[in-house]
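Cross-posting from the modeling subforum.

Setting up a comparison between two proteins and wanted a second pair of eyes on the formatting. Protein 1 (sequence, then structure tokens):
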Amino acid sequence: MLTRAQLQEVSDTMKQMFPDAHCELTHQNPFELVVAVALSAQATDALVNKVTPGLFEAFPTVEAMAAADVSEIEALIKRIGLYRNKAKNVKALSEKIVNEHGGIVPSDRASLEALPGVGRKTANVVLSVAFHEPAFAVDTHVERVSKRLGICRWKDNVRQVEDTLMKKFPREEWSQLHHQFIFFGRYHCKAQRPGCEACPLLHMCREGKKRMKSQQVTT
């Protein structure tokens, strides 16, 4: 596990590398964000951003989405993996927002997680981005980076990773640092080809050190 000074270095480095890190899912309001995040499960943000403009043009309000046929939603998002199940969830969560929340996306965790297709990660993103509530959503990038750097244990599940990150970093930094972890993992510390040789955190990265040593042995 990293020391307090090392954790501060991680935070400072993330801020320096990606000062403008942000949610890359295109959206205009909390409802569009909920839908976009729900669609992004096991799909890239870039792919989601290709299908949501057409989806929101066809069904511009939560009421319109709730009234849509599932087949219509499917046709507009079929390029995304698991699109049939996601289409059902999008319609169902829209209906729930209309029927139980007066057409307004709820701003509390319990109500968000009660929406079909919305888990803790999606709720965290919506709370943070749409409602500016401190949250540390853990996606594959956040999980990978935090484990490679030794902030979390390899065996930790997603909830344990989230709890550890919230414990290690100040509450007021969670939301922005969450995006910076994502950018770091998406554009630098990639799953298959991480930029270890040019990484300012290599000296504390257990995965990076192993990779570099392996390269030296093979050469």
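Protein 2 (same layout):
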Amino acid sequence: MTDSKSETSNLLQDMNARSREVFRRVVEGYLASGDPVGSRTLTRDFSEKVSAATIRNVMQDLEYMGVLGSPHTSAGRIPTQMGLRMFVDGMIEIGDPTDMDREKIDATMGSNAADVGGLLDRVGSALSGVTQGASLVLTPKHEAPIKHIEFVSLSPERALVVLVFSDGHVENRLFTPPLGQTPSSMREAANFLNAIVEGKTISEVQRAVTNEIAHRRQEIDVLAQQLVESGLALWTGSDESSERLIVRGRSNLLENEAEEADLERIKNLFDDLERKRDIAEFLDLAEEGQGVRIFIGSENKLFSLSGSSLVVSPYMNADRKVIGAVGVIGPTRLNYGRIVPIVNYTAQLVGKLVSDRS
């Protein structure tokens, strides 16, 4: 995305004042209505007296530059993905959230309940309601030191790992054990882990186990080793039962998109979301830069086929470490000037509240 930003910055610098104003008004009109903007619409409130023919010539030049497009047979223009990127990077005016938007977010987080999961679920619902888009909330991992681990066989295809944390928190996670596991191999795997686990967080245990397996491959049998590695895979978030992505507001997108092609695009987006295979990558997107990041269309690695935009911001704990993210996803004609401050405000508030409850 860096190369794209550099390219659009150069294009913007090459424009004269008239081209900039035409481009800005086309984009703002499109974001407000979703419809192509024609030359006659622009001449009515343009800052200088110019003819519709002059405006049309400027629009043709902007289309040649690749920042405007002409859909179907319409005489109007809409911004291309590159045009939207140029507008977002160089022309958009980002202020603070309105008092009304801030009050709606604040009201959702006003509960004193210690349940972080419940808090983040309410945050997702509020963010979806305020923005009229779909909200995404990536919840933090529980990073307290582990006290004890136990494996419980439920069936040949299903097993449970019980994680007891030093702060009293207990998590039960389902996973698929390797073929041929036995009660003794599960006990051996648990004993192996408990010998190195105490006082370490899950992330630290992953590193420790990897090192221990490398040094002690001959000391534990093959099934126990496979069981440990299955557990590791589960802790990295690849198992359905331990996904950490909360999605709210699907109906908002479906209601706002009337055309059949758009409905299919939204369906593909939520198929992506429901599989939730790229949650780690979602957090990586947020961690790559400070503050709010905007991904337009195919720039969005997580939902590259959806043709949607993602506005996402990480939130941090008291140690300024990124532990999760909040975001809004919607059509590329999002009201970025309004959505960006809402997402930024929500992320800062979530970080503070999660830290206070930790």
